[in-house]
Amino acid sequence: MTHEEHHAAKTLGIGKAIAVLTSGGDAQGMNAAVRAVVRVGIFTGARVFFVHEGYQGLVDGGDHIREATWESVSMMLQLGGTVIGSARCKDFREREGRLRAAHNLVKRGITNLCVIGGDGSLTGADTFRSEWSDLLSDLQKAGKITAEEATKSSYLNIVGLVGSIDNDFCGTDMTIGTDSALHRIIEIVDAITTTAQSHQRTFVLEVMGRHCGYLALVTSLSCGADWVFIPECPPDDDWEEHLCRRLSETRTRGSRLNIIIVAEGAIDKNGKPITSEEIKELVVKRLGYDTRVTVLGHVQRGGTPSAFDRILGSRMGVEAVMALLEGTPDTPACVVSLSGNQAVRLPLMECVQVTKDVTKAMNDRKFDEAMKLRGRSFMNNWEVYKLLAHIRPPVSKTSATMHTVAVMNVGAPAAGMNAAVRSTVRIGLIQGNRVLVVHDGFEGLAKGQIEEAGWSYVGGWTGQGGSKLGTKRTLPKKSFEQISANITKFNIQGLIIIGGFEAYTGGLELMEGRKQFDELCIPFVVIPATVSNNVPGSDFSVGADTALNTICTTCDRIKQSAAGTKRRVFIIETMGGYCGYLATMAGLAAGADAAYIFEEPFTIRDLQANVEHLVQKMKTTVKRGLVLRNEKCNENYTTDFIFNLYSEEGKGIFDSRKNVLGHMQQVGKGGSPTPFDRNFATKMGAKAMNWMSGKIKESYRNGRIFANTPDSGCVLGMRKRALVFQPVTELKDQTDFDHRIPKEQWWLKLRPILKILAKYEIDLDTTEHAHLEHISRKRSGETSI
């Protein structure tokens, strides 16, 4: 990349103006997006305007359209909803309203519009854009604008960000607000489960989502619900029978609780609504169970945004500014969205079209088509849900077709481990396998702490933090003999290892050991689960999202606790070993001024520059500073050292405080895993067990299992947009074993965003930009999560 290009980002916006508005229903994380648009816009040299109250503000003009400053978006990252207001607007639907809106923009020289809202809001923006030149000529004829003004504003660029808790927009894996809504729902489900356990009750929970079943579906996966009703897949005609049979089966297996999740748009095969009251009456009448209905309503839109939504909003905001400023009269209006962990640009109208196609398919009762149009991620969720919920636990099969698979946890506990064990065990049983659980990792495997797990062994595990099987960091090498003896004794034919870096290094040791011990020639797969997110072969590991949210919540509370006091800077130490993932992502999510990590070496000069920078910032209206430090970023520049430095240099301007977060990060809020970790772990477990059954069949030689190829020992990881199995031996070259981290880490590319949002004049590398893709490509050939 040339030096000229580097500077291009910093001058890209000179002479341009951007307006940002939020429209339609509010969603948590909109503020993060607004903040990013404002700050990145200002960074590029553009002027940025807030439009208050959505399109209504665009039509009314005047004080509703105000220029934004750097400081005007400070402290809004952790607020739910949208600070600049949103309104449903009738005027903008009429041409007269759009004419007034165009007039307001032209008069201020604004030709770039960033719209954050749902599909309705984005469609409105596209109409506005297509009429732009006609509107201008009308305004010119009426003498409201001059010819010169018309030429200056000859075309309008539009970029949309999808902010909607429903996740009903095609082409985007996750819309801004969806993850936070899931957080709210799961908090409530967890609270309800405890009361229902006390009384043996059935709960019917109605969640939002309009005509999209995403929230309901993921909720039911995340809490192990007995049944879910979603609009895209109406139940069979005899569903009443089936439902009651399911509920009574769960009860006879010893469960004291039934949960039924209903999407607000749920319908039967004839398109007749299925209401939560109706379901309650059915259960009470047929089974006589004590049944309660809870309609969640607007609670789901409320509360602070989750870490995921803040990062999503911030990343999308940056991408939106780039897309606007690089736009030409020929580029179509686009939507910036996330696919896996990649930012992508998609033509706005293509997405709107597919979203409309779903509605049409549902109105025409073509439910299979509606399901397909919702995309891979939705389909995968549905497949896993059906497997885990709808099949009766199998009656034991003959030993001829039955395989024995063992499941274990290795390393430090991470939230979501139990969810992974649960889905692994249950999918294994559904496939007719015998599933063993190993306590205390490789040590337990050597000592024979192994037992068989039945269907209800893992009941209710999804929402529990830590590791119920027990986990240790011990590696297998020194106990190969005992381990081999137990593999033979228990007839273990495959091993599923859920854990962190030790699970991966343990896997490498098992591969080595195969040369000496034939017993170790069985397939194994590693599911990455660690708060540090440092396992090679995967962009995410189970447990990291929960840790991130815990750090975030703590930072919010710490920032809030200082409200009303004089200026203050907090230095916070995060976990992660040598891996800077938590410090960097928490920095993005909590709005840190700096995040010190091992992967990006820093000197005393950098520390000095950071302190200077904060001193300058604190001379404005900014009152809070936040500095994150990864625990092993530098052995000499310790947390105490950095705290002392900031205390000394900030004298008379700000106070400093320090906080070491420690093991709190492993347990998460209330000890329970976030919806993302529950869902991710559940899908990883299911996928690992499916792979395992295939591999065992492949490795059958002369009446026994013999697996000796590199691809019979894998890490299952999420790479960019797909879940992939990678031989552990192939990942060796990609690993820095001294520091227990992968040599290349995708999230390092997000570091410049962190710095720009903290007002550093740095060079933004724009080479990694998302290019415009087409929506149809996304739907084939990839297993997104």
From TrEMBL:
Source taxon at top rank: Eukaryota
CDD domains: Eukaryotic_PFK (cd00764)
Location within or outside the cell: Cytoplasm
Binding of Mg(2+), residues: D119
Functional pathway: Carbohydrate degradation; glycolysis; D-glyceraldehyde 3-phosphate and glycerone phosphate from D-glucose: step 3/4
Pfam families: PFK
NCBIfam families named among the record's database cross-references: 6PF1K_euk
Protein name as it appears in the record: ATP-dependent 6-phosphofructokinase
Encoding gene, per UniProt annotation: PFKM
